[in-house]
Fold:
Amino acid sequence: MKKSFQVSQPLSTNSDSDNGGGAGNSVHDQCIVVPTKFAPITESIEKKERSWLVTSQIPTDLTIQIQDITFYVHKYPLLSRSGYMSRLTLHASHSNVSFEIDNFPGGPETFELILKFCYGLPIDLTPTNIAPLRCASEFLEMTEDLEEGNLISKSEAFLTFAILSSWKHSIAVLNSCNSLSPWADSVQIVRRCSESIAWKAYEDNLTIGGETNLEKWWFDDLLTLGINNFVRIVTTLRAKGLRPEIVGGCIAKYAVKWLPGFDGEGEGGDGCGGNEIQLSILSGRGKEGGGIQNKEQRMMIESLVSILPPQREAASCGFLLWLLKMAIVYSVTPALVSELEKRAGMVLEDATVSDLLIPNSINGGGVTLGNSSMKDGALYDVDVVQRIVEYFLMHEKQHQDQQKCAKIAVGKLLDTYLAEIARDPNLSNSKFQVLAETLPENARMCDDGLYRAIDTYLKSHPSITEHERRRLCRAMDCDKLSLDACTHAAQNERLPLRTVVQVLFNEQVKMRISMQAKEVIPNESFCGEQESNWVSTNKQVKTLKREIGKIKAKLTELQSEYGELHHEFEKLNGQKTEIRWSSGWKKIRHSVFLFHGKNDKVEIKDTQPKQNQRRGWLSRRGFSIS
Structure:
């Protein structure tokens, strides 16, 4: 026969519909009382050290241990409500039964509430305890088959009417489910709360319509959730069609809160704040924190990357590159690292130099990621940037109409990046050159930035060979240098001689074209301005003549050195040596002639014993020195 119920206070289902972000009405005074016939058994449950005792004149006959707490209770109140307890005591051969329950949902605190419910004592149902009670009632099989109005039905009613209709309470319940796996998933608490939260957030987006401000009222509440629950809600929001920039903004806020090293101020701007601070933070992550912490961080990064919307407006380039740095630090799967590189390449024109400064060999060396080897001792990982630029070019090729200005912006960005990494003494010449030559010619309107980067590299690497200097300078188009850059290059002793000559001749052509253009100005009203320009032009021509004079002096010096060497070798080796060196000198003359082309003449007379004079002259398109 089923027992009748006496409810001392009706079960309240007060709820709030605070989907506008308000605090809502709190849920309180939820009291449930079991049949009156059980009430005289006990008046309270007292805790003494690690034992909880039912205060009653009737001796207890059941001992239950949960974790490190022992409960001394009576059989009948529990057996009449719990199918699980009935099975445990069914085959007991003695009156006093004792057993231990492992992995009880909610632990001793929740079991105390279960006892109070079974003994007819009032309990308060709240957003923080309803999930443990619902899972514990499922664990103990407290169904309607055993008793009408059992705890499963009572807790379900409270969840449905008091919790799911409230934003704040749904968040609180979802947070309480972190330690209740797999029971919270089994009874669908997580799914129902996630859908309720996602629906309210989506309704808010519909209400405000075209608002572009990403500071949503519900962002901060979602930041309190564990990563698994956060992923569930964001996935639901994406499925409902929430705008990608809002979803991406929410993911970025979550990453800023739970992942180290991102100041949050640089999103869409500087990205990761001060580079020195960033390097200090990132370099210590692989060595500190232990395996468990690193595993949690790696799982969080992988989860956040997997739920990022694919649209380019979903995440800023600074945020993507910061995620990429974190992915490298915590050894995220290569597939996700490649995905971040591609995503960053799509919006590379919005990046800053600080964003691209990706630390190399963070964990102390020897780490290999994809095609990137981190064993060269360089400070920055240039290979990653190389791949990002290549992804940008692939994307630009597919969207040429939308990327006309983007290529110029990336060209300036890359030149500034090259100038920054050029100071690294461990950066190899080949990597620097390959990256400098990655962009096509039309990506740079002017090569001054590239010249500055090359000059910085030559200054920081004085030991590289002349051949390596010439190869490096070939990445630069001397015809795209400004007058200031040409003037600097003409006096730059770090540049190979061939590059200096090329710079001077290119500038000479520019000057002649400029002079010819000014000669055909027909309007006499420009005479004053023309005269001023002529004065400036004449000064520039004189400057170029002086620089070319220096080149002539260098060539004369080389001739003199050759003569001395020739004379010494003639003494040592005789006539055979003289013939061989003469032949070699003719080859040198021939190579110089080929460098200047058919229209440029270079003649340097050999220094023979019977010759007393040495001279050289250069001419190009009407401008000559003798």
About this structure: The beta strands are 44-48, 51-55, 62-66, 69-73, 97-101, 368-369, 372-373, 601-604, 616-620, 623-625. The chain has a mean pLDDT of 76. Residues 546-625 form one domain. The chain is about 55% helix and 5% strand.
